[in-house]
Amino acid sequence: WLNARETEQARLAERRATAMLSTLYDDRNGLYRVFATQPVYYLMDNIEVYEALRSQQRPVPAAALGKSILSQFRLNGAWQPAIPLMDRETFYPHALARTYLWHSGLLNDTEGAADIAAWLAHFSDLWIGRHKDPFAWGIVAWNIHRLAPAEAACWRKSVRMANAAAGWTVLDAAADAALDRQGIQISCSRQLS
């Protein structure tokens, strides 16, 4: 779908991005730093790199990064959003970070489903009601829509009830449109707050 000139530009951009990304790689722990000069690592960022490596059909570095993610970001059975650990727990990134795992391929289907169920039991009202974080986080609705379509539908209803101050991004709009195309309705069987 790209012409020859656009294809070459895309390849050049990919090479430059790969070169820049390589400056963030830490071979001591197999993770990608947030900043080249500081040993700070984010779970979400590393999952995004993992997914990019997979989409580029680079299975060896993807597998190595996946192994590092699974071993480095899980502490006493709980997913940590960052290394070093953050002192104060907040919805973003603490609750949100692990949602990136659900469709990354890093968890098997059983692990992913169990984590989604546990997450929804603990965070659904906070997420849908935006009680501790003003953003819509449509990526969560997209990531749960296959296993919890009713929750995705509640999210679609909740964002329509939100005031203008609610955080809404282009990603949220894309998630909403994609959910619509998947047949997820705008409805909720429980009272939204």
Write the layout of secondary structure elements.
Blueprint: H1 4-22, E1 25-26, E2 31-32, E3 41-42, H2 43-55, H3 59-72, E4 74-75, E5 78-79, E6 82-83, H4 91-97, H5 109-129, H6 138-144, H7 149-161, H8 170-181
Helix pairs in contact: 2-3, 5-7, 6-7, 6-8
Strand line-up in the sheet with most strands: 1-2
First-last Cα distance = 45 Å
Main beta-sheet annotation = 2 strands, antiparallel
Q: pLDDT average, as an integer?
A: 92
Indicate the radius of gyration in whole angstroms. Answer: 18 Å
Tell the overall outline: globular
Summed up, the helix count is: 8
Q: What is the subunit organization of this protein? A: single chain
The stretches of 5 or more residues where confidence is low (pLDDT under 50) are none
Strand runs, count: 6
Q: How does the helix and strand content classify structurally?
A: mainly alpha
The succession of helices and strands, N to C, reads: HEEEHHEEEHHHHH
Helix content: 40-55%
Residue fraction in strands: 5-15%
Summarize the structure.
The chain is mostly helical and 193 residues long. Helices cover 55% and strands 6% of the residues.
Structure write-up:
- This protein has 193 residues and is mostly helical.
- Helix content is 55%, strand content 6%.
- It has helices at residues 4-22, 43-55, 59-72, 91-97, 109-129, 138-144, 149-161, 170-181; strands at residues 25-26, 31-32, 41-42, 74-75, 78-79, 82-83.
- The strands form 3 sheets. A two-stranded antiparallel ribbon has the order 1-2. A two-stranded antiparallel ribbon has the order 3-6.
- Helix 6 runs antiparallel to helix 7 (149-161).
- The chain starts with a helix and ends in a 12-residue tail after the last helix.
